[in-house]
Amino acid sequence: MFGVGTLVRPEGHRAVNRKLSTRSLVVGVAGLVVVDQAAKAWVQQNLPLHAHVPLLGDTLWLAYYANYGAVGGVGESLPWVVPALIAAGLTLIVALLGSYRLYSNYLGASWRAQAFLGLAVAALLCTLLDRVRLGYVIDFLYVRGWPVFNIGDLLPNIAAVFLLLEVVAVIKRR
Questions:
Q1: Is the pLDDT of residue 111 over 50?
Q2: How many CA atoms lie within 13 A of 12 on its CB side?
Q3: Helices 111-134 and 151-173: crossing angle, nearest 10°?
Q4: What's the pLDDT tens digit per position in 116-171?
Q5: What are the angstrom distances between the C-alpha of 10 and each of 5, 17, 69?
Q6: 97, 122 in Cβ contact below 8 A?
């Protein structure tokens, strides 16, 4: 009969590279952007600007800040910062999509690379929507010792985990 030994891959056979459907990827990105934008709308409607509400002792606070600059408000007094950040965000989205296409043509698409791409694009879209619509980014989460941030700001950190997993998977395949 069939034993465990018969399930060994033939020599030279590569593991199947699973990937997400384009629809799943688009729905995932859209879902993340909707959650981010809905949270920001809730904060705008329920907190006055610069308000703080403790969520977890003295460690995590719900806050409402308008970030007119880059990370942590850097460059907020410069009139060209918002247009420059919008242009940079759009350029990064195009670069990410182009790089992913080249990568997947060369090494094959994988769910890890797609998750990285989706999270990175969603993060950029979250910020771009605020900057185009409002001229600033709404930040509403404050953890002691860190600048105030939002859901979209967390996504690149999660994306980095998927990128690391992809690098490990590629190294293992070689």
A1: yes
A2: 0
A3: 160
A4: 999 999 999 999 999 899 989 999 999 999 889 999 999 999 999 999 999 999 88
A5: 11, 16, 56
A6: no
Q: Tokens 């989706």 correspond to what residue?
A: 118
CA–CA dist 163, 157 (Å, integer): 10
Q: Give the separation between CA 113 and CA 162, rounded to whole angstroms.
A: 7
Instruction: Read off φ and ψ for residue 67, nearest 5 degrees.
Output: -100, 105
Q: Do residues 17 and 169 touch, judged by C-beta distance below 8 A?
A: no
Predicted TM-score (pTM) above 0.70: yes
Q: Whose CA is closest to 162, among 124, 125, 117? A: 117
Q: How far apart are CA 111 and CA 105, in angstroms?
A: 14
For 23-48, write each residue's pLDDT tens digit.
Answer: 999 999 999 999 999 999 999 999 99
Residue 66: strand, helix, or coil: strand
Q: How far apart are CA 131 and CA 153, in angstroms?
A: 14
- Assign 109 to helix, strand or coil: coil
